[in-house]
Design brief:
The structure is a single chain. The protein is mostly helical. The protein has one domain. Helix content is about 75%, strand content about 5%. It contains four helices and two strands. It has a two-stranded antiparallel ribbon with strand order 1-2.
């Protein structure tokens, strides 16, 4: 079975992989702490993400708008997609909370603006 993704999906996946690769130093930390289970998990995670990049996505910006057929082995692709899915799910939850907080803050700002407009309007009428 061949897996195809759009150019936009490629760019989104690539961007998130590059962000996740910022944590590759965690491998050294867990090895120094002799946490072999975490070292194995991180090693598998980064290995799958790197393999997806160097096999299919490529490094850097892409100028092509064509679909891309992925040739990374299915087990590696499944692992990489699972990791990225969990990351995206967690990030989405954070952004949903932030959006809700921003909506609440905006509501308060609008209320202050409207109250001040009403106060200023009443003061202006009193000056006449």
């Amino acid at each position: 079975m061949s897996v195809r993704i759009s150019a936009q999906e490629r760019d989104a996946l690539y961007g998130r992989i590059v962000l996740r690769l910022n944590g590759i130093g965690d491998v050294e930390t867990v090895v120094e702490g002799r946490d072999w289970e975490a070292a194995q998990r991180l090693g598998e995670e980064f290995s799958a993400l790197l393999r997806l990049v160097y096999t299919d996505l490529g490094w850097g910006e892409r100028s092509s708008s064509e679909e891309l057929t992925l040739s990374t082995p299915p087990d590696v692709m499944r692992h990489a997609a699972g990791v990225l899915h969990e990351i995206a799910k967690a990030e989405r939850a954070i952004w949903e909370v932030r959006r809700q907080e921003a909506d609440e803050e905006l509501g308060e700002v609008v209320q202050v603006q409207e109250a001040c407009e009403r106060i200023l309007g009443q003061l202006d009428q009193g000056d006449r």
